[in-house]
Amino acid sequence: MRAFVSFLVLPFLFLLAGCGDLISQDAGKRGAIAPILTSDEAFDDQTFAKPQEARVTHIDLDLAMDFDAKTIAGTATLDVLAADGASEIVLDSNGLRVSGVTDEAGNALSFELGETVEGKGEPLTIQLPAQKLERGADLAQGVLAPTHRITVEYVSAPQAEALQWLSPEQTAGGEHPFLFSQGQAINNRTWIPTQDSPGIRQTWEATISAPEPLKVVMSGVLQGDPAPKDGNRRDFRFVMNNAVPPYLIAIAAGNIEFSELGPRSGVWAEPEVIEAAAQEVGDTEAMIDAGIALFGDYRWGRYDMIVLPPAFPYGGMENPVMTFLTPTFIAGDRSNNGLVAHELAHSWSGNLTTYSSWRDGWLNEGVTSYFENRIVEEVYGKQRAEQEYALSYAGLVGGIDDIGADSPSTAMRTPDAISPFATRGFAIYDKGTVFLRTVENIIGREEFDAWLTQWFDSHAFEPVTSEMFLADLREKLIGDDAELENRLMLDEWVYGTGLPENAWAPDSEAFAEVDLAVAAYAAGAALPDVDVWSGWTAAEQRRFLEELPQELSGEQLTALDASLGLSQTENNEVLFLWLEAALRNEYDPAVAQAESFLARVGRNKFVSPLFRALNDTQWGKPIAQRIYAQTRSSYHAYTRGNVDETLGFEEPAQTALTD
Ligand SMILES: [Zn+2]
Question: Which positions are annotated as active-site residues?
Answer without folding.
Answer: 343, 429
